[in-house]
Amino acid sequence: MSNGLFVTDEDGDTEMNGNGKLDKKLQSSEILKEDDPVVNEIPINLTVGPCPLHVLQFPNKPKRLAKNMDEHPPIAGVRYKDESSVWEIDIPLNTQVFFDKEKAAESWNNVDVQTLKGVAVSNDMLQYAGVMKQGQLYLIPVEKVAQMRPYFRYIDSHQQVKKDEDAKAKPANPTAKKNQVITMSVKSSSEANQNRLGGALLAHKVADEEEFKPLEWKDDTFESFVEEVTSEKSTVPLKPMDNDAVYLSKLF
Amino acid sequence: MSGRLPGLNQGKPSTGTSLKFKPKVVARKSKEERDANVLKVEEPNKQVEKKKYTQKPQGNQKRQPKYLNNTRIITSGPLAAGNFSGGSNKGNNGFIKTEGSQSSLVQRGLKAVSDDEAEGSDAEDSKAGKRINMGKEYTEADFKKETDDLFDEDEDSNTDAAMSEETRASKQLANLFPVRAVRINHEKVDSLQKVVQESMSTLQTREPTPGPVKLEPEQSDGTLNDIVNEKEQQLKEKLRLLQLQQDFQSVDSAEALRETNLLFEDHKHMYKKLNKINDVPNKFMFFQFPSNLPEFQPQPPVKSTEEDVKPNGEAKVDEGSEQSNSKNSKETQIDSPEPLIGNVGSIRMHRSGKMSIKIGDVVMDISRGAESTFLQDVVTLDLEGEEAELLGQIDGRAIVTPHI
Fold it and tell me: What is the total count of domains within chain B?
């Protein structure tokens, strides 16, 4: 390190003599180059996959599952809402252990899957998934990231059924009538100001009104995907148009 | 009575005889008498208590330790108690439950999982077997080691490919057990704060010095050039200092050194990992780039190769798309500037162990992102074919920032 420091000092001096006033940034980058030669390089190739990539995060599944694809949680069904970008995944439950079959049959419509749900979110920065193949790094843009969290639809639907039953059970109740009047008024006002729905409420509304599109889940397409992504054209070097200063000025 | 309030001594009765304590001696009762008393009062109570105890598991070992008397132990939530593992041989073993269901399958699965976790790090731990991590607390160093081990384990995955169906089932079973977020015990916070304070104080002594210099120009406007020169020199001095500390704007040189060491370690780790996932199926690394990349010239030769490659497959569709491309070539370029395909640069490993990334002509910094402890899948979404394809998992994260 100390030797390197001396070298950079000399370089700086010679440049001072040559240019008089020196550009600090230029100097620093030059120091970087000469002080610290590049030993090894991994080429970066930007590519585009045939379809958009999403990343699904499973906060309730440990990472060590990724060690072996066989141990990856099996998936019984996938659904996706395109417009509101909502994912829903069914993971079959092990009904042999820690599972109350009677209760499931009794009130939860024989549920035997765990449903994970998440909204895919895009990001301002550029996100890529990198694949290494033959010493080269291929970057495929990641469109959205979703966090898949347990969603207890069977409980919700059960409660909804209960509520409906309760409402049917006492239609003659005067208090219920009053309630209805109130809800009516709310409804009318919301209709008048429908445009005011914004943010989360709007997103909810859009998501509720959209139908899920069932998808087929495949997990053996990695090879063909990589084949497709690592085509020759992705290794063709591109000519850069920006240099350091221009790029930095574009950022701010 | 000289106008003073009466003191303690003055208030004393001047009789001269002080009070003395004379304990009253009570004759000890005979044994028969005592026994009779005890029997009358305590016999029913004792019996009740005995009954209670017999219902509980025998022995006092499972009862709360004395120092936890009158305290409520919270085992979950943000205020959860830390480690008070009873007989564990190491402090970091945490609150580990050794019981569980009686099913031997469960037991085996738990053991397999705990062995997985202990693999490589501590051979002793695996002897204990049958354990779940119920809120293990890590020190920072331990955590780092363990996360590193997580990736080192990958090498072993080939060996247990021949794992029997039964052990796989038991492992999957063990995965049903609750997972807790990893908690890191930040012991070093205190010392870090001290360091920060020190550096702060040195900053304070440094900053006020230009103060008087600032005052002078207001009094004499004629020497403006001198002041500008002076300030320029100050700036240059500062810049020089900053450069010496290699981009870390810390004042303490020892701290800067530590920082660089950490950075190098991270870079080494990333480089290792990149090499590790080379040609390994189902493994991805997540990259974060700034919102804009340097621009590149869309190259005509790229298009020609595009034509060469594509006709093998669906010729009709491609022709159509190419025609539309040629028609609206300008529009498509404006509409979709994204499909940038080609070699844009490289990740470079320097001799010192530093890593940098070069995109076009721009050199950028690359740093290691926070590792996640949970599973992350990469999925391609094919809405037309109505398919979701699981491609693999994300292993590691790198963040690329512009070098300023």
Answer: 1
Q: What confidence tier does A148 reach under pLDDT thresholds 50, 70, 90?
A: very high
pLDDT tens-place string over residues A8-24? 444 444 444 434 343 44
Spatial CA neighbour of B367 closest among B231, B223, B260: B260
Q: Return the number of other C-beta atoms located less than 10 Å from residue A36's C-beta.
A: 17
Distance CA B194, CA B219 (A): 41
B169 → chain A, closest CA residue? A71
Q: Using CB atoms, pick whichever of B350, B360, B386 lies closest to residue A39.
A: B350
Which residues constitute the domain of residue B268?
254-292+344-403
Environment class of A127 (CB within 10 Å of its CB; exposed 0-12, middle 13-18, buried 19+): buried
Position B33 in a domain: no
Contact flag B350-A241 (C-beta cutoff 8 Å): no
Q: What is the CATH number of the domain that holds B353?
A: 2.60.40
Query: Which two tokens mark A216?
Result: 């087929």
Question: Alpha helices, DSSP H only, in B138-188?
Answer: 140-152, 165-174
Contact A239 B296 (CB under 8 A): yes
Per the CB < 8 A criterion, the answer to whether B399 and A123 are in contact is no
Q: Is residue B364 part of a domain?
A: yes
pLDDT single digits (tens) A68-79: 666 677 888 899
Q: What is the pLDDT of residue B111?
A: 63
Tens-digit pLDDT profile for residues A208-245? 888 898 998 888 888 888 888 888 778 888 888 878 88
